[in-house]
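Example record

One chain of 493 residues, shown exactly as stored in the release files.
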Amino acid sequence: MAEQTAPRATANRSTTPVSEGFRSYISTNWAERDEADAAPLEVASFAADRRARISAMYPGKRLVLPAGPAKPRSNDDDYPYRAHSAFAHLTGWGADTVPGSVLVLDPVDGGHEATLFFREPAGRDTDEFYANPEVGEFWTGRRPSPSEVASSLGLRTRGLTLLGDLLEHADADTLVVREADPALTARLDEVRGRHHETDVAGADTLEAQDAQLLRDLSEMRLVKDAWEVQQMRLAVDVTKLGFDDVIADRDEIMAHPRGERLVEGTFNRRARAEGNATGYSTIAASGEHACILHWTRNDGPVAAGDLILIDAGIELDSYYTADITRTLPVSGRFTDVQRKVYEAVLEAADAAFAIVKPGIRFREVHAEAMKVIAAKTAEWGLLPVTAEESLEPEHQYHRRYMVHGTSHHLGLDVHDCAQARRELYTDGVLEAGMVFTIEPGLYFQPDDLTVPEEFRGIGVRIEDDIVVTEDGALNLSAGIPRTVADVEAWLAR
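Predicted structure tokens for this chain:
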């Protein structure tokens, strides 16, 4: 990696020439660039509709939605940049977002006027393009021009330097997505505080209003539009390729002492080839590790005779992600006890899917899966009571073997719409266009004395991505093998 120069305080080791002769030489003899307008993106009209919806909810309020800054990972390196999901949802800008950009919705008669502030390309008459390692073109690549962004997203654009004047005129009717850019939020709080002489009470009021904005933006995403559903389909399709790659590399994976890392690497390669990245940290959990719900260290072997639980999803350049889990027999065929556990989980998943349709409560999906989990664990003699008794709220003994929920919403975030109110999420009524997971599992810890020895160390989860339709539901990931016979045939190929 090339050595960075200032402005990072920890990287003040510049060797970039600073003589006037060098500055004059590097700023001349550059070819003119074509600044032709970009074609409008398909998402632009959908993003405009989303902005209109939030505008109608906040008449007379100025709404500030930052993409957020880059986040340092270590001294001279940032984490891969990802804009805040609320910003991406309302602009349609995903992986191409310029860090630090801000969408502002200014109130006007009849709604809001949207302006996207972002850092424009630096001219060759400045030293930014070669001397600034955080945003300089020599370091991070070319930034789009205002006209290119305006044409592709259908938004008015202005330079980021002009945002300061607007923020200085913020008042109590200015709201911000607080978590997206802490420095910008602190600046706004200071300015807005001048309009709240009561200090603490005023600050509490502003924070409560900001929190409501974030909640409303989150709840807007509960029902996906047609473009979003299309993105979810594409994300699932390319995620299938990632699982195919892992199976194709099985011999090499099994030969390595840290085969789980090879699973992760193989899947991540496909994610970078087909999309932006993985939608979350890949879980490659072989053997006993499959009993650890969020095993992401992925430093164990992948041994013959074991099951490997792979929970992985590819995030597209639009930021929409899949979230798929498959549990595979490493040797190609399930043992009798592995098959018994797997088919129980599959039965729970199918039972939950069978009831999905508009009008039911989201929590009913989980309840339906739990009926099967309770019945199976009772049938195997693992519970101190009957399945019916275990399902009663005061018991729930079967949850020892599946402590997580069955479903979560999915979209721009792997756990999408997380700020939505309980009455619209867990207790919400399903509507066509909602996308969520169904992912029951059974996990028998290696030291769990309540289960027979042959069950210990077996962990199984099956996770699919579901979209609610007008009269039922569609399993977007049905094409990724999930029955015992289909999984074994998949591995045999």
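Notes: The radius of gyration is 26 Å.
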